């Protein structure tokens, strides 16, 4: 006497229970969104990274923000004999000490008077050529003037 499985026993199988749980869940609506538990730290400290960019100058006054007084300024420049000036003075001519274009350039803030940087002159071929030409022209002019003075001398 085999009894057919009862309808009640069939509904209590794991598959039937899972189907029933899905029906109940869909009738209730979607689950509430996940909200993470509050952190034990009420706020995270922030760090600010300050990047200091070195100022690059040339031979002319520059418009910059002075890092010392935080003002927007145009630098004041002063010329100073540097390595190139002294090398040209020793090997070419003493006249380079009279020329600003051979000297290094110091940049200063006109408000707080701090030195902001220095432009060191590169020893360019144009400068060397100019100095050599001056050294060639001066002796030639001297020779011409001496020759003219001898030819125009009055012998009475």
UniProtKB/TrEMBL annotation:
The keyword Amino-acid biosynthesis does not apply. Its main location: membrane. It comes from the Eukaryota. Keywords: Membrane, Metal-binding, Transmembrane, Transmembrane helix, Zinc. Pfam families: zf-LITAF-like. One of its GO terms (cellular component) is late endosome membrane. Residues 46-121 form the LITAF domain. The chain crosses the membrane at residues 123-148. It is a peripheral membrane protein. Belongs to the CDIP1/LITAF family. This is LITAF domain-containing protein. It comes from Acrobeloides nanus.
């Amino acid at each position: 006497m085999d009894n057919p499985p009862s309808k009640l026993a069939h509904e209590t199988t794991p598959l039937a229970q899972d189907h029933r749980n899905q029906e109940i869940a869909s009738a209730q609506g979607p689950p509430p969104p996940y909200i993470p538990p509050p952190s034990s730290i009420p706020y995270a400290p922030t760090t600010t990274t300050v990047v200091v960019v070195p100022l690059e100058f040339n031979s002319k006054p520059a418009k910059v923000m002075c890092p010392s007084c935080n003002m927007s300024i145009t630098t004041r420049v002063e010329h100073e004999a540097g390595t190139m000036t002294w090398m040209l003075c020793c090997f070419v001519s003493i006249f380079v000490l009279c020329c600003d274009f051979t000297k290094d350039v110091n940049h200063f803030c006109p408000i707080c008077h701090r030195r902001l940087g220095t432009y060191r002159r590169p020893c360019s071929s144009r400068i060397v050529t100019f100095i050599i030409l001056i050294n060639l022209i001066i002796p030639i002019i001297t020779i011409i003037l001496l020759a003219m003075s001898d030819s125009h001398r009055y012998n009475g």
